[in-house]
Sequence to fold (350 residues):
Amino acid sequence: MASAMLEEGTWYRGLAGLNEWDLPIMLIFASITVLIGLSFSQGCSRTVTSSKTGLTPESVNYHFTRSCNYKCGFCFHTETSSYVLPLDEQKRGLKLLRDAGMRKLNLSGGEPFLVDRGKRVGELVVYCKEQLHLESVTIVTNGSLVTEKWFELYGASLDILAVSCDSFDQATNERIGRRHKGNDHLESLRRVVEWCHTYGVLFKLNTVVNTYNKDEDMSEAILGLGEICRWKVFKVLPIVGENVGSNAKRQVDEFLISDADFTIFVDRHRAAGLDKIIVDEDNEKMQNSYLILDERMRFLDCTSGAKEPSLSLLDVGVPDAICESGFDAQMFLKRGGKYKWSKSESNLDW
Fold:
């Protein structure tokens, strides 16, 4: 009976009224669909992990430009591109991040005040604070291009302004590369500190400890600046493709220090009365504990020692992009990533 059905071509029709070619074609199509599905799941295997852990972009560092007017020899985010997204696309991406849970945004570079002479970073600050209503909006800058007029226009919407300064000796700053034409970096620093106090913006200091400043005692100079909400002290960080390798824009070798050198520097300044404001980060704490967004709104995964970009969140959305960020949420908390990051939480009594 069965053989008769096969010979007569009636077995397939007995299943679903199909002709003898329909089922093989359907099986082939189903196989292709399964293979495509497996390919996509393997291409972003961390999507599953991300959804299970509920990874949220609570605090994001947006390096919206790579261009800079300084030439710091150890820079780990170099000018490999001059691209800057249009403002409307930046706003679209930032809204996606806010809707996904972003509470704090740090705007960085490169040098953020290079783009449109500071107008762009000012517009982003106002948009994030006044329209997205983020808890905290901050900027990291070298300070050389900041003007008082900028504070008049945008300062009310800014929570924290951080200036990078590695030494209170001008010759050391110049040796490191913190210079631009005839600019006096320390003069720029002190000017920005004064404006922060005048316009009610919290001031933060960032320092990268390296070969040329590891033995310096900055205590007196820092205490002389007045109110500082935080002093971030980083151990110089090697990153392949940025400051390591034949294709890198910088070469970090001459700036590298030992763990002991870094610890001695931190302990020296803690003992001098700066313990309450120092937040020290060695390479282990720093490398994977930041959600870094590049100029095309791609998360950068540093777990391999290089910066591997995700797909842009503008194209795939935040959940699919953040799964390739390599972000270590536990280390973020361990290094003190959550703190009083809004000026509304602080008593500004300058």
